[in-house]
Structure formats: structure tokens, C-alpha cells
Amino acid sequence: MSKNNIEKLFKPVVGEDNVMTSETDRYAYSYDAAVLDGEMPAIVVRPENSETLGEVVKLCNDNGLPLTVRGGGTNLSGGTIPKPGGVVVLTNSMTKILEINEEDLYAVVEPGVVTAQLAAQVASSGLFYPPDPGSQTVSTIGGNVAENAGGLRGLKYGVTKDYVMGLEFFDTGGNLVKAGGKTVKCVTGLNLSGLMVGSEGTLGVFNKIILKLIPPPQAAKSMLAIFDSVKAASEAVAAIIAGKILPATLEMMDNFTIRTVENFRRAGLPTDAAALLLIEVDGHPAQVADDAARVETICRENDARELRVASDQHERNAIWQARRDALPALAKLKPTCVLEDATVPRSKIPAMIEALELISKKYQLTIGTFGHAGDGNLHPTILTDKRDKKEWEKVENAIDEIFDCALGLDGTLSGEHGIGMAKAKFMVREVGKASLDYATRIKAAVDPKNILNPEKMVRRNNG
Amino acid sequence: MSKNNIEKLFKPVVGEDNVMTSETDRYAYSYDAAVLDGEMPAIVVRPENSETLGEVVKLCNDNGLPLTVRGGGTNLSGGTIPKPGGVVVLTNSMTKILEINEEDLYAVVEPGVVTAQLAAQVASSGLFYPPDPGSQTVSTIGGNVAENAGGLRGLKYGVTKDYVMGLEFFDTGGNLVKAGGKTVKCVTGLNLSGLMVGSEGTLGVFNKIILKLIPPPQAAKSMLAIFDSVKAASEAVAAIIAGKILPATLEMMDNFTIRTVENFRRAGLPTDAAALLLIEVDGHPAQVADDAARVETICRENDARELRVASDQHERNAIWQARRDALPALAKLKPTCVLEDATVPRSKIPAMIEALELISKKYQLTIGTFGHAGDGNLHPTILTDKRDKKEWEKVENAIDEIFDCALGLDGTLSGEHGIGMAKAKFMVREVGKASLDYATRIKAAVDPKNILNPEKMVRRNNG
Q1: How far apart are CA B128 and CA A238, in angstroms?
Q2: A427: which chain B residues are within 8 Å (Cβ-Cβ)?
Q3: B463: pLDDT confidence band, cut at 50, 70 and 90?
Q4: Residue of B nearest to A423 (CA)
Q5: What does UniProt give as the signal peptide span (chains A, B) (predicted)?
Q6: Domain identity same for A181 and A282
Q7: Within this chain, do residues A226 and A348 fall inside the same structural domain, yes or no?
Q8: N vs C: which end of chain B shows fewer Cβ within 10 Å?
Q9: Does the distance separating the beta carbons of B214 and A158 come in below 8 Å?
Q10: What's the number of domains chain A is made of?
Q11: Which residues contact B397 (CB under 8 A, 6 or more apart)?
């Protein structure tokens, strides 16, 4: 379809001001946070309300135009890279928090609400929305639901999936489909909201989302445990979980990451340490005291050389600032930063760490490893330059080996970053052909023209 | 297909001993716990392992034979009533607990494992599997997953859906489909395990299920709060939740139920009370003490005339025995006992209770109301005799009004009993046509011959 025609199609629906077709605009929405080449869409549109959103979906379907919904664009697997010549649908004019219900513990939001803004609003109502993906200050709830976003609190509080009580989405015909609801228990109809979580925009376009809220923990305590060996640190992680303690967060940083973070912002991290654990326990004050004491004992039993316990909010913030610095600090070192998220059962963390060290040596690559050790979701981060073709080949081989290693340890290709375009071809190794076929049949049934974020995760020709 | 031919089809696969075709056997598997007429299957088969199970599914599909999987047969919505002339597949030879992993907090089980047996086994490993449907001593995990079973602990701990990390199921071709896994975080592929939970056997046949386990609470305290008005009791429920306390269980019983239970087993319940709340708080001992004190205060503020706190395990058991007695005691009163489970957001419990009283008066029906007040999931239980056609008509009208009332209060047709055959025709009122159409497209895509538990929940011709 010509540029003129495509503009004519959408302008009457979303209005002149909500259509972008300049090369600059289209370029700006051609890529996301994944290390993948972008693709130029034909048009970028910004519906301002439900009705218009539904009409946009129908227009795309009627005209066979591939549609990619974009929230914060923080996707790490290419899930928001459009199809060449396709339509990018922005949700940043649908940002209303429609309801925060303190009696029934839920929130109803539009898809474009920024995660951290919702969390803050919920907190000001005396409640708690736990999912905290690293990109929460810019990511949107719609994107979080589409990707089943995780975060630091996955271990104790679960991930986005665990908080979606219901949602409304548009099918390709622009009809509004309702699933789930405002009750904790609801078994009316297929669990379509469960299916939509993590479907990466391939099965429908979200209109509203109902999220479960919980009472916040009354107290919290943060600790930094310093280790002289990565093995000891990773064994301490396994021992904490096996000790039936579920910290709110249980994060790890290897020596390379520690040094990089300390270079980035002098925070007094021990640059000679082999590994750090950053731990927060929360709950009733008495439980926090007990758990903190037990965590400390377990860390010492596993050869922690030092434990630093935050004595006030300032020290607590310093610990978590260091953790939040990990990715930006690493990303500054080299032109290309490949943030992996292959995930293993938590007890396999020591084996995974060991494998990562071997892979790093074998391919002579710089890999900084940090992440959510408590739920087995590490982020080995490969620092490289994609323009260096020879090294990039090594990076691709290393990633391939990381995947095989995670799968060999009963783990998964992706804990929280999604499959998107980046990992679609690897999926068959984990789930097998029958599973891909089953998903493809669903995709074909609900999106016969293949217009909903095509080529992401569920492909027509899998395997 | 003739009886002879159908026997010949299955005997070589499952073995002579695992095929039942006598009228008595077929009759025994023709009905379930729903107040619905049964349907005679042509054959009942009992596969003894995965391989055979897959072959049975393929055989049914190849021969166009409708297939209904049956666990404990405790279904309250007709979900295990077979199609006339169809195949009942029993899971009671697939009862292995394959793994309880204490380090990584999961269990892997076959579908025929009895819920309470799994819970006991998990407890003996020092862990906790919270979902506790009323039928747990006979219900199976496969059935629980198919129905997304709830239970008393839904309020704090969630329902079956919240514990399914992954599963394997056979598609109609007898291919094994894998979904999810053993990691807390997993976003590889569509969330097919989410879709399968609560799909009532319409989309696949479970082979293995991976369940999340959690550390058990360290302490618990049970209480009985006695009220002179149902309104006061239901307002106390709403006030407890609004007070940001999440009891492990928060149950209610009305006067009719109290008297019936006391008649059934002399337990010292106050037969003159308008309503009882049965409450258990759990967690760290200090939290239990705090929460119990606050619950007591809130109950008194809402005009509880008396609070009895269990001082030992014996008294605690007595409280929960009374709750467990509710259904069997009510069921003894009349030939037919219709156990409803329309569910509302918790703050709407007072309004729902009021509506139930009006409906009971309007149709001059005996309705005992008890259930999971804390999560809005009441069980109004209509005592009647289905053979009395005139009264049965009133019952049907009353049920219709209960549904409308729950939906009017932002609730759902079914909190935990399922849609099955009993409520399929009412679904459109709650989810609308677009949602039914979407589900129907999925069903048709993965089960083109409509052999997987046909006519349950997802119908070919909805609405």
C-alpha cells in the first residue's frame, strides 16, 4: 500500500496528530532494546482510546497490514520490532489508571501505564504491586503483560503472570474479548488471560488489564554478602532456598560486574571480591529479624568473608543502586551489550556459573554475570562490538552454548526477556515440535491473516 | 461403532483388564457429582502409563470417538459426564508422584494422584502445597488442574492455577506437548500451561504436571466468631480484608447451615447465631499473634457477640471439622442438593448475602449458605427434590437470578466448580459473544473432530 493510501486509511480514525510517517519518526520506532537490526514500519499510529484502538486493529486486519504494539520499547528480544511496511501502534496515549480498589485488592489499567508509576500510585493507596522489571521506570503494563515480565522480586512474589486477574483485548476483527475478572476465583471460560500473558502481541491487542494487588510487607532488611569464590556465593543461594527462606530479592554479581559498577559510581563495593549477594528479606518485623539472622548464618557457613547489613534507608538504597547500576555500567564498556537471560532451577546456579566461566574462556569473551540468582534467572552479559564480524560469530556460538547448557540443566531459554525474534529459532530445542505445532494452530485460528506481531515467538513455519 | 468393535480397538492398547464395557461399569462412570442426568459411555478404559495414554487419545481421534478423562469424578458442573457412546478414560492407574524437589520447590506428578495424598507427601518433605478443594481426599491433581480447583485457602494462597509451573499433555494426534517447566521464571513459548488450567478437558489430555511448592507457615491460629446478624458477619469479612490482613482461610456459615451441622455432629456450635466466621491466620508466630489480635478487634467492632480462639490442635480441628461437615450435613436433608458457587468481589459479600435471602424468600426455597467469604466465593446450597417438577422449576429460576445477581455485582458465574455442562449456556452473559467465539476458534483449531470432552464449557455453537 502506498504511503499516501496508508495515511488516508488511519488519519480519519486516530486523527491527523496521531499519525507519523516521516522517515525520522518511522526510524525511531524501527528498533527496540534487543541487539537486532530494526525494520522500518510504513506508519506509526497512536490511538487515544479503546474505540479507536479497536478500529485500528480492524483496519490492519481488513487491509492485511502487520501490526506491532509498542509500549516503552524496552523489549530485549525484538518483540517490538515491526514488520517492514507494517503498522506500529503506540499505547502512550492510553495511560489511565482506571481504578485502584483497596477493598477488593485490584487495579484496572490501560495498557500504556508505566509500571513504576502504577506501583507508586498503588503504594500511595497502601497496597503493593510487586513485579519490578529492570525497565520499570519506562516499561508499560501492556508490555509487561505481553512479555510476562519478571524482575528482582520473582523469587518470593512471582512475575507479571501471577498478578493478571483478567483483561480485555481486541481480536483481529476489532471485537472486544473479555477474560477473567475482578474475583480471586474465576473459572468461567477458557483461561484466556493466562494465554495472553507472555503471548508477545501475537494473539490480540490489550485494551484493559485487571491486576491483583496485595498488602505490602511491614518491614524489610537489606544485606550485602561478600564472597571470595563464585562457587561459595552460588552455594549460599541454593542453601538459603533449601533452608526454606524466600527472600524478597536474592541477587548476585560477579567480580567483573562488581568492578565495573564501582568504576561507574564509587559506592564502596569490594572490588577484590569474587562475588556479591545482594539480599532483601521482608514481611512481619519479627520474621524479617529471624530470616535476616538465618540468611547471615547460612552465608557465613558458605564462606562469606563479610556481611554488611543496611542500618537505614540510605544504606539500603545504596545496595540496590549498585544492583541497578550493573546493566548501565556494563553497557558503557563496549559498543554492544548482549544481555542474556537463560534460566535454571535455583539449585543449578552453581553449575550454570561454572559453565558460563568455561564458555567465557573458550570463546575469549568478556562476560559479566549478575542477576536474579534466587530464582535461577542470571543475566550473563556479553560485552562486544557487533561490527567485529569475527568476534560476533564467537558471541553467537557462545549464546548457543549458553542455551544448551541451561536446557541441559532443566532450565529455559528465557526467564523473562521473551522469545521475540531473537530466540524463536531456538525454541524447538526446549519445547519440541508438538508444542510449536500446537501454538501455531492457535495462532492461525485467531489470526488467520497473520497480522498480529508476525514472526515473533509463534511462527507459521516453526522449527 | 459396535460394542465388539470398540472393545477390539482398545484391548490391544490398554490390555484386557483395563477395559470395562458391562452396563454396571458404564453406568458407574456415566455421572459425576453435579445435579445432572448421566450419559452412558460405550466403554471405560484405564491406561497404565504415558505411552498407552497417548495411544488411547490418538485412537479416539482416529475413530472420531468422544473422550472424557475422569479423575475422582467429584466434578460439580458435569465436566466428567461422558458423551453417549463415548470413551471414559480413567487416570487412577497413573498415580505416581514422580519427584518432590526440596531444593527447587516443585513436584512432578501424574494426573491421577489424589490431592490430599500429594499434600501429605509434600508436607512430609517439609514443604506446602496449598490448594485444598473440598473434595481433596478423593479428587485428583489432573482434575484439579482441568477445573482450576479452588478451596479454603484461595484468599491468601490462590488456587490451582497459581501452582501449575508446567505440564505435558497429549494433543488429539497423541503427540506430547510440553509447556512451562521447572523454573519460577519461564517465558519460552505461549503460556500453554496457563491455557490448559481450567480448560475442563477440552484442549488436551494431561500426562504430567509440574507444581510449585512453598515453605509452610511456621504457625497458625484458628478462631470462631459468632454474630447475631449475617450483615454484621459479612461486613466483618470486608473489614478484615480492607484492614490489609489476608487470613489463610476466612469462611462463613449462615444460621441454617449452623443448625444443620450441629444436628449432624454435636460440636457445640451456637445454633441461635445468625452467622459464624471461621478464621485461620498463619505465618511467622509474631505475625500470627498480631493478625489474630487485629481480626478479633475487627470482629468485635463489627458486633461479633463472641470469639472463640482454638487453644490447641484439638480445638482447631473441631472448628475445621464443623466447616467440612457443612456440605454432607446439608446434603442429608433433602434428596437433591444444588451447590452453587457464583462469586463476587469480596467487598460485595454483604450485598450478595442480602440478595440470596431475597431469592430464598421469593421462591420459597431452602438455601443454606456457607463458603469462602474471604475470597467472595460463597456456596449458596439449595435443598430440594429434583423429582418435584414444580419446585425444580423454581430452583432453576432461583439459580438464574443468583447468576444475574453475581454478575451485577461484578462477579462470576463460577468461582471454582467449573462451567461444564451445567453453566455453558449462561456463559455469554458474563464474557460476551466475542470471548466465546475466540475460545471456540481455539477449540476448533486444536480439536478439529471435537473429540475432547465435547459440549463442556467451549461449545461449537456458543451463545
Answers
A1: 19
A2: 188-189
A3: very low
A4: B188
A5: none
A6: no
A7: yes
A8: C
A9: no
A10: 4
A11: B363
